């Protein structure tokens, strides 16, 4: 993504991917549509978001996707988020928020002296404030009864307990912030959506434009990362809501 980021909305209604219905579902047309579970992917144009969208379709979900490039939603614009999220009709059993930028206008800082206030503020706006603005509209989009999952893309580098290398100040701080936001949102949303699960998810190092400038790390394809993330979302239990998990479902320290 370079200096850009993955985000979403402009047209009031999201684009809906063609659906491959589960063959065990009886009926056609509206009957199949009503029987299918629905999913919403925020950040559907990014490498991980697009892959998660395709993975959910393959699992029989009717998937709606929003992206900044495709729909015009700027997650740093509260009015745009309110307008577009407010135009959605639920319920969605799965909501995946894949918003993120590594560095706005430059690379991750290797030292405190490299911190640029404007760049740090932009990274925080996209990685932490953006998801918070989206999450503010999520509760009404979830079913009142039955299990639902909200997965928010985070990163292991947002873990304070796991930070042994230093550096990357803006990105680390923004991911630590979104983890706190996710934890708080899980508590708040859970008061009215008793079976909802809200979690921060680390996808591993994924081979996308986001990581292209950082060779030397073991990477997985976006498709494999999407499979892993969807597996985790399927396995999470209500008691784990508010947690921080990696691509294998292992809890990550705060």
UniProtKB/TrEMBL annotation:
It comes from the Bacteria. InterPro entries: NAD(P)-bd_dom_sf, SDR_enzymes, SDR_fam. Pfam families: adh_short_C2 (PF13561). SUPFAM superfamilies: NAD(P)-binding Rossmann-fold domains (SSF51735). One of its GO terms (molecular function) is oxidoreductase activity, acting on the CH-OH group of donors, NAD or NADP as acceptor. This is Short-chain dehydrogenase. It comes from Lutimaribacter saemankumensis.
């Amino acid at each position: 993504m370079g200096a850009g980021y993955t985000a979403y909305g402009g047209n009031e209604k999201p684009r809906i991917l063609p659906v491959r219905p589960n063959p065990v579902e009886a009926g056609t047309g509206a009957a199949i549509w009503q029987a299918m579970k629905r999913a919403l992917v925020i950040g559907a144009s990014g490498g991980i978001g697009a892959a998660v969208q395709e993975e959910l379709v393959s699992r029989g979900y009717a998937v709606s996707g929003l992206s900044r490039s495709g729909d015009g939603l700027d997650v740093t614009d509260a009015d745009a988020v309110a307008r577009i999220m407010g135009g959605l009709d639920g319920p969605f059993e799965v909501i995946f928020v894949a918003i993120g930028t590594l560095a706005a206008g430059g690379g991750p800082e290797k030292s405190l002296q490299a911190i640029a206030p404007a760049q740090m503020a932009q990274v925080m706006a996209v990685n932490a404030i953006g998801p918070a603005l989206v999450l503010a509209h999520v509760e009404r989009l979830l079913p009142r009864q039955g299990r639902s999952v909200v997965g928010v893309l985070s990163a292991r580098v947002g873990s304070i307990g796991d930070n042994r290398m230093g550096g990357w100040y803006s990105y680390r701080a923004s991911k630590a912030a979104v983890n706190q936001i996710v934890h708080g949102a899980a508590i708040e949303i859970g008061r009215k959506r008793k079976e909802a699960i809200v979690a921060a998810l680390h996808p591993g190092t994924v081979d996308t434009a986001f990581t292209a400038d950082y060779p030397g790390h073991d990477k997985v394809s976006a498709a494999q990362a999407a499979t892993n993330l969807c597996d985790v979302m399927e396995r999470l239990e209500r008691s784990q809501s508010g947690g921080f998990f990696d691509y294998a479902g292992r809890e990550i320290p705060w």
